[in-house]
Specification:
Distance between the termini: 59 Å
Largest sheet: 5 strands, mixed
Radius of gyration: 27 Å
Number of helices: 0
Low-confidence stretches: none
Strand content: 35-45%
Strand order of the largest sheet: 17-24-23-19-21
Shape: elongated
């Protein structure tokens, strides 16, 4: 924070201070992974405290996914063998990646800044690359010196296209820096598209599906937004184009909307209201320094309740104090708590 003028230790609960691998997620710097001969440790507070998540492994290199703090890779080194481990839960658990790597130390690794399904590793036998988040690995040693000179100790890549990969070799007589420039279009674009991106289901609910179109070597994950009434039936991780199956629960209330994110693409699911409910009023709203004023037409004999939520697809709505029996032709309600708050959604319900 002061340009390197001063440093302070961050070793609380760090079981071993023999650190050989280290990386911080770049967006906020709060999540940090560190390791060495005695395993891997995780911190979620910028290094103020640590928890060991993996033992019996020698970690020689670590790298986060460029924009997902839950995905990271660890290169194994030392007396416990080589290979690469991957986590999908921020370092809580680790799994070995697929075949194709030599059984040698991984001295460095990096994740492609634009196509994070691509990962490069530096080994005693040269550079290896995966196009599918470590499902398989291939040798990537075009124009590198042969034999012992192919001992690669460090890797770097430019952040903008055309991407340039640098490899630092430590083996005699080929020591030095080597450069590889990707040709235009090299590296698979793993931006997916989903169809349909908008679908409507009736209030009884039932099955639905969405198809993700994405490169065959691209890995993806799927998750539901703030909509507990949508359940995913298919695997939530995979590779290549897929059809995701889901189920929508019966709707006993008003119309609602939720989202499913798969491979970075978003599918919106709308479910119609239960037709057995009394008709809902049309609401007009106007904000001022006092709060938000809502007004709507009323029906004689009905009682109305105003509720709000910070998410349109939420199942959790907070009622404003005081239900309002119909008096006259129009009802007015003020929410004084909205001042200084971000986006807030409102609905007016007829109390049964």
């Amino acid at each position: 924070i002061d340009g390197g003028e001063s440093w302070s230790a961050r070793n609380n609960a760090l079981g071993s201070t023999a650190i050989a691998c280290l990386d911080a997620f770049r967006s906020d710097g709060k999540r940090v992974l560190a390791g060495g001969p005695f395993g891997i440790y995780r911190s979620d507070d910028g290094g103020d405290s640590w928890q060991q998540t993996l033992s019996q492994v020698y970690c020689g290199s670590l790298r986060f996914h460029p924009w997902n703090p839950d995905i990271a890779y660890a290169g194994r080194a030392g007396y416990m063998g080589g290979g690469v481990l991957r986590t999908r839960d921020g370092g809580v658990t680790w799994q070995p990646t697929g075949p194709g790597l030599p059984a040698r130390d991984v001295d460095d690794l990096l994740v492609h800044p634009a196509f994070p399904n691509i990962v490069f590793v530096a080994t005693d036998y040269g550079v290896y690359r995966t196009l599918n988040e470590g499902v398989t690995w291939q040798e990537y040693n075009t124009a590198l010196p042969a034999g012992r000179s192919r001992w690669i100790r460090a890797l770097a890549i430019t952040r903008r296209p055309p991407f340039t990969l640098y490899a630092g070799a430590g083996g005699y007589p080929g020591m030095g820096v080597y450069v590889y420039r990707e040709s235009e279009g090299e590296g698979q674009d793993c931006t997916g598209t989903v169809t349909p991106d908008l679908q409507t289901l009736s209030h009884p609910g039932g099955p639905g599906s969405a198809t993700l179109s994405i490169g065959q070597d691209c890995c993806w994950t799927a998750e539901v937004g703030d909509a507990s009434w949508i359940t995913l039936n298919s695997p939530t991780t995979g590779q290549g184009t897929t059809t995701l199956e889901f189920t929508v629960a019966p709707n006993l209330g008003l119309a609602r909307a939720g989202t499913i994110t798969i491979g970075g693409a978003v599918a919106t699911v709308i479910q119609s209201a239960n037709p057995g409910l009394p008709p809902e009023p049309v609401v007009l709203a106007q904000a001022d320094a006092v709060g938000l004023t809502l007004a709507w037409d009323v029906v004689s004999g009905r009682t109305y309740r105003v509720e709000y939520s910070n998410s349109l697809g939420s199942d959790s709505w907070v009622p404003l104090p005081g239900d309002m029996p119909a008096r006259g032709a129009i009802a007015v309600k003020i929410d004084p708590t909205v001042v200084g708050v971000g986006t807030r959604y409102y609905r007016v319900r007829v109390v049964p």
